[in-house]
Write a structure and sequence with these properties.
Layout: E1 2-7, H1 11-23, E2 26-31, H2 33-44, E3 48-52, H3 59-70, E4 79-83, H4 88-92, E5 99-104, H5 109-119, E6 132-138, E7 141-147, H6 152-166, E8 175-182, H7 190-201, E9 211-214, H8 218-225, E10 234-236, H9 239-246, H10 256-265, H11 285-290, E11 296-300, H12 304-315, E12 320-324, H13 327-335, E13 342-345, H14 354-363, E14 370-374, H15 379-387, E15 392-395, H16 400-411
């Protein structure tokens, strides 16, 4: 059975991971602090390590990663880091510790579990039903809107986000308005509807009489009336009924539009904080690809074999490679605003040689490190490349791991030209 070790994770994050991965026959263990974490790493040798950190520059975190890397058996265990948004150059520094993914909070859970499944070489079953789930909160009222469809993964996660919101003492006598007016349902959705209400009522954090459902679907009302556990939940087709039952009389509104504008659209709480992303609007393909990428590498070489070999090498550390056969195409990408953490550049490119590319990048104040990987062995060529801003020069051919090692050195400023 596969094992994941969660280090310094919040209780909510642990429960979420444990419940989700249990279905996939993956055990989740936890550790707190450097000593406990290192002891569990070397004693259990988990298949994957997930570290939740508030500060990626923390010396204790770095020390733990260094100790792990120095252990022969533990150094190859992949690591996923989650933390605040930081500069990509800092993220790239973690490559040397076998950190293969970095997820800024709040984590996009679908991308997160897709990464875990690939790292564990497992086939996780994720519900891909299109679904938009949005939460707003104002005062003691939590507005939950679900549109397009019912996605089991997102409904599952809803329970943990509500627990996170209600675990403190900030919300007194919480109330929920569940808006399902943009859903078309059938009897095939009964199981998912029950899952939705089970997650909302989990832990009895909200009294049933404080849960109001806006829906035009008779099926919703039938399910609620047929379950004793849902007794007291009200289903209505009219938002005015919600105004009358949830809003205090002293806060009267002339009409429903005023209520929506004041209570829903003027949300007072930032829900982007926290561990996992609750604003489940569908991500664009570009966002999906880039989430969690440790670094982005431009490989500029007219030899297709070299390009593919280097791409495969960087893929092994979960780095995204962008391949360029022509120097002009690469420069156009830079001018158009594409960002790269590292560039691997050949000198002998037919349309535009590497020296010209280096000179052009120097004029543009291009700041990302460049490694020249070329067959040119003349001292003059090497000196010219370095004088034009290259951080290192490697003579072809080399094994891919040599290129990766040099990349790590360059990204960490440990240059030995």
């Amino acid at each position: 059975m596969k094992q994941v070790l969660l280090i310094d994770g919040s209780p909510l994050f642990y429960e979420f991971l444990k419940d989700k991965l249990k279905v996939e026959q993956v055990v989740v263990d936890t550790a707190k602090g450097n000593l406990d974490a290192y002891t569990k790493i070397i004693s259990t040798l988990p298949d994957l390590i997930v570290i939740e950190t508030p500060d990626c520059t923390d010396e204790v975190l770095i020390e733990l990663l260094k100790k792990k890397t120095m252990d022969f058996n533990a150094k190859k265990i992949p690591v996923i880091l989650t933390g605040p948004e930081i500069d990509r150059s800092l993220i790239a520094n973690f490559v040397q510790y076998n950190v293969v993914k970095y997820f800024k909070k709040p984590i996009k859970f679908d991308v997160f579990f897709d990464s875990i499944s690939k790292l564990l070489n497992a086939n996780f079953l994720l519900d891909t039903t299109p679904c938009v789930l949005d939460i707003h909160i104002n005062g003691s009222i939590i507005f939950v809107e679900i549109a397009r469809g019912l996605n089991r993964e997102k409904l599952f996660l809803l329970k943990y986000k509500l627990t996170e919101l209600l675990s403190g003492d900030e919300i007194k006598n919480p109330k929920i308005v569940l808006m399902l007016t943009n859903l078309s349902l059938s009897f095939m959705d009964i199981t998912n509807i029950e899952l939705l209400f089970d997650n909302i009522t989990a832990g009895n954090l909200i009294e049933n009489q404080n849960i109001k459902v806006l829906s035009l679907e008779p099926l919703i009302k039938e399910i609620i009336e047929g379950h004793p556990a849902y007794y007291g939940i009200e289903v209505t087709e009219n938002l005015n009924n919600v105004v009358n039952t949830l809003v205090e009389s002293k806060n009267s509104f002339a009409n429903v539009n005023d209520f929506v504008a004041d209570k829903i659209l003027d949300s007072s709480k930032d829900l982007t904080a926290g561990t996992v992303d609750i604003r489940f609007n569908e991500s664009s393909p570009k966002d999906f690809r880039e989430e969690g990428i440790v670094m982005k590498v431009a490989i500029v070489d007219d030899d297709v074999t070299i390009r593919k070999l280097l791409q495969s090498a960087f893929n092994s550390i979960s780095a995204e490679s962008v391949l360029f056969e022509k120097g002009t195409s690469f420069l156009q990408a830079v001018v158009s605003g594409q960002k790269f953490d590292l560039v691997i550049l050949d000198i002998f490119i037919p349309d535009l040689d590497g020296f010209s590319i280096l000179a052009s990048l120097q004029r543009q104040n291009f700041s990302s490190p460049i490694i020249v990987y070329s067959q040119a062995v003349q001292k003059e060529a090497i000196l010219q490349a370095l004088s034009l801003g290259a951080k290192s020069y490697i003579v072809k051919p080399q094994k891919p791991n040599i290129i990766l090692q040099k990349a790590v050195e360059v990204l960490n400023g440990q240059i030995n030209r």
